[in-house]
Amino acid sequence: MLLIEVAKEFVATIDNKKTDGTTVEAKKQAWMALTNKYNALSETGIRTEKQLHALSELYKTGGRTFCPKTTAADKKVVALLPPQFKPLSNDIDSSAPYYTIDIVETQQLNDTQYSSREVLGAKEDSVHQLQQVKGSKRRTSPLLVSDITPKIKNLFN
Q1: In this structure, is residue 92 part of a structural domain?
Q2: Which residues belong to any copy of the Myb/SANT-like DNA-binding domain (predicted)?
Q3: From CA 27, how far away is CA 39, in angstroms rounded?
Q4: What is the DSSP letter of 114?
Q5: Is 92 in the same domain as 43?
Q6: Does a structural domain hold residue 82?
Q7: What is the Cα–Cα distance from 4 to 85, expressed in whole angstroms?
Q8: 55 & 91 share domain
Q9: Would you list the DSSP string of 56-95?
Q10: Rg (CA), the chain
Q11: Domain span including residue 32
């Protein structure tokens, strides 16, 4: 605790973020003065400037090494539940381009064997993902003919 008391008068110089020549020299002078004052008041023995610098870093970091906030178990949970971890769409957000949904363009074929009413009836129970995109609702998954064909056949049986 003595180091903290002694460092109070030097903290503005020691914790300065500038790295120009004048500031670096001022930091060296501050560490030398801090070391001299600490050793004059210390009852446990003489410490070097390097030792006091290391001790001050331990005080700043709490004496621990960096520990990532996410663990392997957290990553497994995120992998199992991806829909719950998708961010909300926000066009104003700076990271919005990273989370855009690609909308598949579709075209209507004139020579289909089923009417649009049959297709809509067959897909009515499986339309599940609609998302608000610039004021209109659009599907997030493309409509595939293979998805609807078995249901249409069941309609006629």
Answers
A1: yes
A2: 3-52
A3: 18
A4: S
A5: no
A6: no
A7: 43
A8: no
A9: HHHHHHTT-----SS-HHHHHHHHH-GGGGSPPP-TTSTT
A10: 33
A11: 2-61
Q: Phi/psi class of residue 150: alpha, beta or left (left: φ > 0; alpha: ψ in -120 to 50)?
A: alpha
The tokens describing 67, both together, are: 């520990």
The number of distinct structural domains making up the chain is 2
Q: Tell me, yes or no, if the pTM score tops 0.90.
A: no
Query: Which has more confidence, 114 or 38?
Result: 38
How far is residue 88's CA from residue 91's CA, in Å, rounded to a whole number?
Answer: 10
Asked whether residue 24 is domain-assigned, the answer is yes
pLDDT tens profile 121-146:
444 444 444 444 444 444 444 444 45
What is the C-alpha separation between 155 and 157, in angstroms, rounded? 6
Residues 96 and 52 in one domain: no
Is 93 found in the same domain as 150? yes
Same domain, 97 and 146: yes
Between strands 136-139 and 130-133, the pairing is antiparallel
Q: What is the torsional sign of CA 117, 119, 121, 127?
A: negative
Q: What is the pLDDT of residues 1-49, one digit of tens each?
A: 788 888 888 988 998 889 999 999 999 999 999 999 999 998 888 999 9
Q: What's at 35, amino acid-wise?
A: T
**Residues 33 and 92 occupy one common structural domain:** no
Number of H helices, E strands in the chain: 7, 2
CA separation for the pair 13, 31 (Å, rounded): 9
